Amino acid sequence: MKRICIGLIGFGTVGTGVVRTLQENGHVIERRLGQKLFLKRIVDLDLERDRGVRLQDVILSRDPLDVIADPEISIVVELIGGEEPARSIILEAMDNGKHVVTANKALLASRGNEIFEKASKKGVEICFEGSVCGGIPVIRAIKEGLAANRILSMKGIVNGTSNFILTEMTKGGRDFRDALAQAQLLGYAEADPTLDVEGIDAAHKLAILIALAYGTKIHFGEIFVEGISHIERTDIEFGMELGYKIKLLAMSRWHDGCIEARVHPALVPVGSPMSTVDGVYNALEIVGDAVGSTFFYGFGAGMMPTASAVVGDIMDLARDLSKGISGRVPPLGHPWESLEDLPIKPMEDVVTNYYLRFTAVDKPGVLSAISGVLAKHDISILSVVQKGRRGEPGVPIVMMTHEAREGSVRKALREIETLPVVVGKTQLLRIEDESLRESSK
Amino acid sequence: MKRICIGLIGFGTVGTGVVRTLQENGHVIERRLGQKLFLKRIVDLDLERDRGVRLQDVILSRDPLDVIADPEISIVVELIGGEEPARSIILEAMDNGKHVVTANKALLASRGNEIFEKASKKGVEICFEGSVCGGIPVIRAIKEGLAANRILSMKGIVNGTSNFILTEMTKGGRDFRDALAQAQLLGYAEADPTLDVEGIDAAHKLAILIALAYGTKIHFGEIFVEGISHIERTDIEFGMELGYKIKLLAMSRWHDGCIEARVHPALVPVGSPMSTVDGVYNALEIVGDAVGSTFFYGFGAGMMPTASAVVGDIMDLARDLSKGISGRVPPLGHPWESLEDLPIKPMEDVVTNYYLRFTAVDKPGVLSAISGVLAKHDISILSVVQKGRRGEPGVPIVMMTHEAREGSVRKALREIETLPVVVGKTQLLRIEDESLRESSK
Q1: B323 touches chain A (CB under 8 A)
Q2: Within B77-187, where are the H helices?
Q3: Interface touch A147/B29, C-beta < 8 Å
Q4: ipTM, two decimals
C-alpha cells in the first residue's frame, strides 16, 4: 500500500501536539486505519528550539514551498495561524492538489469562502475540526451526526480565555482587570487580549458554525459582537442574586431563512448545563428539530486537545485517500454550489430578555420615571432590585424585562439616560433563559 | 444520477420517526447530500394503523423479503428490534449486497461479531448510531472525531428509563416501586421492565462502546451488571447527605490491554456534569489521552431523537454510495481482521470507593466490630454516619471507604453479616468520584 505522507507547516504549540499524538498514539492510529501515517516534513522559522519530541526521518526546513511542492505529500497541515501567509500557503497547496487540515478560525472566518471555493474547484478537501471547541468533535456532529436535522439554534461558550476570566470574577470575586492579569499570568490570555475578551474569536467560531449548520456562505462581518470588558463585579453579584451566571455566549437561531447571530455576555440560569461550564472549558448546545437539545462539553483549546482534532482530521483524509476519493463530505457539509447567502437578522430586531442596571440618584419618583419610559417603548418589567448604597453618588437599580426588541430597548435607554435623576451609563446585558421566553411557550 | 433507494423494515415508533424525518426534512437532507433519498418500501406486520404520515409512492408489504430481494434498494433499515427475525433479516440483506442501518443494541451486543464479520466478508456497511444514546452522535465521536486518542475511560448514563426512575426517587421522594409505576404510566418503562431496571440494556450499549473504543470483539457476557431495583429511598437520602446522587452508570476503563467494564448504580458527586443529567436524558463522558475529558448529553431515546441518528446513518451510506465506495470506516472503527480479543477485568479485581449501609442493633461495640473486620481485609474507612432511629429493629450505619478491591469488600461483608450485632443484608454501592481516587492522583 502506498504510504500517506503529511507535511506540517507551523511547529508551535499545537504543531508539537500533533507530532506527539502521531508518535505516542501511532499504534492506536495504525490499528484504526489499517495503515501507517508518515510525517515527512515540518516547516517552521525556528528550527532550533527543543520541543521535547524525537524527530526521526522528518525533514525540517524553513520554506513552506518545501511541503507544498513535495509530490509525495498529500496532506498539508497548516498550523501557523493568522491571515497571511496562512491563506497563501493553503491556496497554493490546494493548487498543487493537496488536501489541507487547519485549525485557523480567524482565517476561515475572514477568507473561508475563497478557500472553500478553491477546494471545490480543485477537488481537494479542507478539514478544520480544531478551529471550533478544540478537541470536542462539534463540526463533525453538525456536518454528519446531526445532518438529518434542521438546526433550530446553537448556543455556546466557545472562547476559553473569556470564560476563565468570567469564572475568576464569579468564583474569586475579582474585577475584570485582575482576572485578565491572572489569565495572562497563566498563559491563557495573550499580551493583547482583544481577540478573546472583545468576543472576536468567539464570533470567528460562530461564523463557521453558522455556515455549517445552515449551508450558507460565511458572513463574519454581520455578526453582532460585544465583549466582556465592560462587565463589573456588581453585575456578577446582581446576576447571582437573581439566579444567573454571566457567560460570554455565541448564539444563533433559525428564523425561516433568516439567521439570528450574536456574541455577547449573557445571564444564564444557575443549574443549567451551560452554567456548569467553568474555567477554560468550552461547550456547545445544538438544538435540532428531530434530535432536540444536544450538549457537547470539553477542553476548547490547548496543545493536546487541538492536536486530537487535527489528527482526527488527518485520519479522515487518510481514509478518503486510501479509497481513492475526495469530497465525500464537502467542507461546509453542503456542496459549494448549493450554499446560500442567507441574511443575518439585524441586531435591532432581535427579541430577548434584558438585565438593565441603572445608576440613579436616591430620590422619590426615580423608579416611576424609568419605568414610564420603558412602558412607552413597549418594554415590560419582570422584576426590580433596588438597593441603597450609602456614600455612593448614585444607587443601582436593576431590572429584568420580559421579552423585548433590542431596538426598542436601546431607544428607551437613550431616553432614560437624559433623565436628570439618572447618572452615568446604563449597563445592558441580555438574559438567555428559555423559561422566560414567551415565544417558545 | 442514480437514485438511492431505501427499504424500511419495522414501522413502529422509530420507523415512523424515520419516515417523518425523511419527509419533513427532505429539503435539508437533499441540500446536504446534493441528491434525493427515495424511501421505496416499508415492511411491517401491521399495515392498517394510521401513523400520521403520508405515504406516497411507498410500497407497503408484510414480507421482509420484499425489501431484501429488491435489486433497486441499496440501504436496508432494520427497526424491528430484538434478536430474531432481525438477525436473519440483516444477514440475508448483507448476503444480497445491501448496506444496513439498525438501532438494535440487544442484537449487536449478543450477535454483533457474527454480523460485523459478515459485513466485512460481503464488503457492505452496517451503521448503528441510534443504538447508543439515541440522537447524540457518540458512536461517530469514538470512531472518527476522537480516533487519534487512546480512550482511557468512558462513563455514561445510557438508559433513560432507569435514570427517570432514579430522578423520581431523588426529586419526588418516591420509592422504587412507585417510581417504576410512574415510568410505566408515562410510557417510559415496559410492562416487563427487566431489561431497563436490571442494567441489561445499559450493558448492551456498553458492550458496543467498548468494542468501538478499544478495537475488540464484543464481549457482552463478561460485563458486570447490577440494576437499580435494590436501591432504597434511605440510600438516596444518605447519598444526598454525603454530597452524592445515585445514578445507573455504564463504565469502562483501560488498564494496559485489560478492560474494566461494569454497569451498576453509583454515587456521583452533586455538581459534577453527570449529576445534572436527570429524567430520560442520557450522557456519556469519554476521556481520551490527548483530548482529555469530553462530555456528550441529550435525549437517549424516543421517536425523533433515534430517527435523527438513523437518518444520519442513511445519509452517511448515501455519501459512500454516491462515491462508489464501501467500508471507508469499518463498523467498529477498526478493520475486522485487526480486532483483538481483549480480556475484561474480573469484577473482584476492580478497585473503587464504596458506600456500605449496615443494619445493626443499637449496642456499644458495633462500630468497632464492623470496622475491625474491614481493617482485617485492608479496607480503610473514609467517613461514618450513624443514626439511631427509634422504633426500628436495626439502626443504619453508613460508611464510605477509601479505595478498595471489590473482592476484599465482598469477603469482608460476608464475614460482617455473620456478626450477631448485624441484622439483615448490607447495602453495597460504589462511589464514582475522581477526587477520592488515590490511583489517579
Answers
A1: yes
A2: 86-95, 105-122, 138-140, 160-171, 176-185
A3: yes
A4: 0.95
